[in-house]
Amino acid sequence: MTSFKLKALVAALALNNISAYGAQENANKPVKVSEELVVYGDIGYRNRSQQLAPTLEYDQDYFQRFEPLTAGDALKRVPSVTFLSDVLESDGARMRGLSPAYTKVLINGEEVPGAGADRSFFVDRIPAELIERVEIIRSPSANRSADAIAGTLNIVLRDGYSLDGGYLRAGGLRYDDGEFKESLGGVYGTELGGGRLLLGANLQGRYNPKKKTSFRYGDSPENNPDYREQTFDNREHQDDTRDGDDTSLNASYEYTFNDGAYFDISGIWVDTERSEDERSYEYNHPSTASGDAANGGSLLTDNANIADIEQTNYSLSSSYNQPLFGGNSKFKVAVARFEESVFEQEVELDTAELPMVLEQEQERSDIDDKEWTLQWQHSQPYSDSKQWQIGAFWQKKERDTGIYASESELETMQSSWDQFAQSPLSLATFDAPFEAVSGGVNTVQEQRFDVFALLKHESQEFAWELGVRWESTDSQVDNHVDAVRTDNDYDFILPSAHIRVQVAENGRINASLARSLRRPDFDYITPALREEELADNDLLGNPALEPESAWGVDLGYEYRLGQTGVMGVNLFYRDVSDLIEIANTGMQGAEGEGTFVLQPRNTGDGTVYGVELDLSTPLGALGLPNTGVFVNYSWLDSEVEDFFGERKFNDQSDYVYNLGFIHDFPQLGASFGATYRKQGDALGRFVGEEVSTHYGADLELFIEKRWQKLTLRMVGSNLLDASKEEVFNKFDTLEQQIERDFDEYELESEQAGPVVQLMLRYAF
């Protein structure tokens, strides 16, 4: 791993920074001086994007005063993005409340591999300090990958034109348990050899202390109103602490030739080292602890779990733009890689009687995901307002996964156990050999070849775009444990159309119609039989799965308020076909009668719809010229059929909203502001388990003081001690789930305290 990191450091020139507007605009745009990124004179608002595909655009100055640590923290403030992460974390972005698998995350317009078996990319992998702007692309165009049923999040990183000069950032975060984590970084941009060079580095300490409490019962209130008194099983308390560091490097170089040709090479390298330490105690009484024999309180189990995680992301990319035949051709080559190594040890001590039973498990997992990409695109004007584009895209992807586990039991005759002074890990022997889990050692290879064509007309009053994309995929899956290889090929024709009409001096209507995809999860297409994967039922992979597809409509109205304000409303609808849902093969499962072998299949349809509102404006018209407000609200809904009837798409929140303000005191060189965020409840229904999730509200405040080249900022986050409440309905078999015969009913609560951040920025 160390040698790989050194190579990545030397090679960290990745991720193309050419925006969707083309090379010439990037080459000719003004260069920002370092003071503009450190000492703010104006409040940043949502941009009014000129892209024909419906797009919301937020520059860095919209987020930075609240000092987000990651891209995920920044995205919490934009419309329609929800998370089902643990408290204090923002990893899998869920546009319009749908699973992260339905959201395409791009870095500078390019796909990057991630850890998720559902092909998702965790946005907490990108430090917020690297971001130039964020684009929320609600509907795809032909010149962009259509794997985005919910939409696309394009995280655009800084390039050589983002900065002239440099700045340093130093500070830290203090957590409610007294832990302090450092935050250091620096960026420098300059002219070099007639081009523009940008270099950046960032070190971010990460820490997340949480406490969880669970109450478990043998029945639920839907069957027994007195379930708390009559069917109590056990109570569990858990301390869960995540501790680690993120290190990142980024670089870019851009050069414009005399004939208008343009070249760039740029990149990012991110490394994470993290530990997750969990300790839980299970009691047989709803309130008393171990030793309270008069009230029947005793310790049932003592569980210790520790995981060490190492992750590395890097991408390398270069592009060349050449004026040709009166138009412009762009050629691009890129390579991206994600590596993850996880080593986990878990020991559970059954203390109910002597001899005590020690169950010990170890798991080692590795992911190596590589992508190679070639692209070509040619744009050709054929009148003052019209142009056509054609292009081709080739990508090879190879994902190697290895999961190995060992399990064993032993007995100990210790007459007493001090749960607070001792750890079950100290008793473990871990003498069982590692064995590959079923389907856990596999290789997925995919080759994509896409071509597209589009026509575009742009004018102030009326603009339109018509395009079509053909995506063809050849896949091969090797299950190395069972020595099984399977192949699957599929292709899709994906049309798109976008219209923008200026209906008033400050108002315009946007409408879009497009077809989009969601590709199947990696673990679903692996041809392996995993016993008791879904409660007591077995899960059989299905390499023949094809992507889900959807026809989508977006209809929006946007109104400009003064010079910088904007207000928008958008209606969206998605008609999803070939949903990947769990089906019953009819074969009996490994646990015998009443259990089945289940398999993911393309079956059924679903719909997704909602309304999105956003407002970003100064309050000068109300006599508050130095105050800006930010409001967005999204109402989200959907329908899908499964084994048990109609439901929403799994884990889709009912709504999400954000509101906030920033007030500036120009004469004092000071500002303060606040944001408040709340998302609605979410329900997930799976075979063997149903989960409802409720989040508390999140409040953040900042105050800053500015000098000529210096900014000191204090930020308080999670000021309401945000909590995550989950209710689990658990069943052993399909029949029991249909008949509501519970195996277990669980109430779980997770909570973390406030975090205070102090940050100093200096421009030079």
Automatic annotation (TrEMBL):
Domain TonB-dependent receptor-like beta-barrel: 215-682
Region described as Disordered: spans on this chain: 210-250
Record's signal peptide: 1-22
Top-rank lineage group of the source organism: Bacteria
Classification via InterPro entries: Beta-barrel_TonB, Beta-barrel_TonB_sf, Plug_dom, Plug_dom_sf
Keywords linked to the UniProt accession: Cell outer membrane, Membrane, Receptor, Signal, TonB box
Residue spans of biased composition, Basic and acidic residues class: 225-245
Pfam families: Plug, TonB_dep_Rec_b-barrel
GO CC annotation terms, alphabetical: cell outer membrane
Matches recorded under PANTHER family: PLUG DOMAIN-CONTAINING PROTEIN, TONB-DEPENDENT RECEPTOR-LIKE BETA-BARREL DOMAIN-CONTAINING PROTEIN
Protein name as annotated: TonB-dependent receptor
Organism of this sequence: Pseudoalteromonas ruthenica
